[in-house]
Amino acid sequence: MTCDMARRSLPELGRTLEHADAVHGLYYLLMHGLFRVFGAADPLLVLRLPSVLATAVTAGTLALLGTRLAGPRAGLLAGVVFALLPPVQRYAQEGRSYAVVCALVTWATYLLVRAVRVRTGRAWAAYAAVSLAACLLHEFAVLAPAAHAVAVPRGDRRAWAVAAGAVVAGVAPLAVCSMRQSEQVAWIGGPGAGALLGYAGVALLGAACATLLPRRRRPGRVDLVPLALPLFVLPGLLLMLVSLVKPLYVDRYVLYGQTGTALLAGAALDRLLGAGCRVRAGALLAAATTVAALLPVSLHLRTPAGRLDDVTAVAAAVRTAGRGADGVLYLPGRRRVWSLVAPDSVAGLRDLALARGPADSATLYGVEAAPSVVRARLLTAHRVVVLRDPAGEPPVTDPRDTVKQRILTASFEECATRTVRGARVSVYARPGRC
């Protein structure tokens, strides 16, 4: 989706954001500029480079932050721990805004610590500006200043409140716009058992690390535990509580909370390494065991199997299936996004359901024709490539998709189906013509 949106012209992008995906508008604009500058480069390289660089910047900023709060070794370990966390490694490869938001929130956290120390209006303005930039890239970054509030000393709470108020005021228009597009997140269900267990597990890890660290608060200073623990716990917890009314919790929306985990783990490791020989040996053994246990996960995340779908494999399967076909069909229609990334894979195939393309209609996936039109077009075809959800997904409910399925069942026979990561690519033909 990012690739398609970023390649649209600015007028097309603006028209689309009026109706859909406004929450990612600033990121699409950033990527549009990168594609204009590096248009001759590999699209996947351009798409993923900001996330890779942002993750590196986050690790470096955490090292600086940890150094200021707990010492050089604690800072270095915090940066290393962050880079090893599986969610961080996953979104360092994604062409979405989450890694960049994480970098900005980490920078804002560093600026908060500095603002409390120097107590100047310029320092608080810098904190507010970077926090606002993170929120404009993804509005749920507004939960980070709420977590920061726990760590702010009493004498600086008024300055923090002014800065946080400016951030909320700045992001409010985006929030209002995205609320009008709330149907886009209708796919989000309540937090499942896996999400709850994952959140609880890392929260317990953070709490265990916090017990190893001094909890005494220094007057007029930001301390590590009151800063790092809420930074991990509160954004996810608040989003889960909101999800009781309107499901909105997705772990990547609060990826920046992993910075709190890294700070706590880095400081705890530093403290253990500074203890007696037996404790130090145990800490080193536990760290080595953890890294060894994470290695298969890290390697898995770098393969196509580590993603929900493999668009490259889908494109290759469509090219093979499309030989001799005269049309392509998407079940459901939103799966047209697979071909937007690799339009050459469907070259020469007529999109039998499409009325107006995504850019022309200022939508994410295009506008499909009326069911009667889809039916008439499909009946003129002799051999059709059908891109479908993987087995086990909920049945289609849109009238257009229902018509597609009904005509395929009644007037075609399934010749072959190839299952790739996250998709099924099938060939349908008239009876006796497989």
Structure description:
The chain has 19 helices and 7 strands. The protein has helices spanning 2-7, 10-17, 25-37, 43-70, 72-84, 86-91, 98-118, 121-137, 143-151, 157-180, 193-211, 224-243, 258-273, 277-301, 311-321, 337-341, 358-361, 371-380, 399-411, and strands spanning 327-331, 350-351, 354-356, 367-368, 383-388, 413-420, 423-429. The strands form 2 sheets. The protein has a 5-stranded mixed β-sheet, sandwiched between helices. A two-stranded antiparallel ribbon has the order 3-4. The radius of gyration is 25 Å and the shape is elongated. 40% of the residues are buried. The mean pLDDT is 89.
Outline = elongated
Kindly state the mean pLDDT as a whole number? Answer: 89
Radius of gyration, in angstroms, nearest whole number: 25 Å
Order of helices and strands: HHHHHHHHHHHHHHHEHEEHEHEHEE
| Tally of discrete structural domains | 2
Distance between the termini: 33 Å
Strand order of the largest sheet: 2-1-5-7-6
- Give the proportion of residues in helices: 55-70%
How many helical stretches?
Answer: 19
Which structural class do you get from the secondary structure elements? Answer: alpha/beta
**Oligomeric assembly:** single chain
How many strands, what sense, and barrel or not for the largest sheet? 5 strands, mixed
Number of DSSP strand runs: 7
Beta content: 5-15%
Uncertain residue segments: none
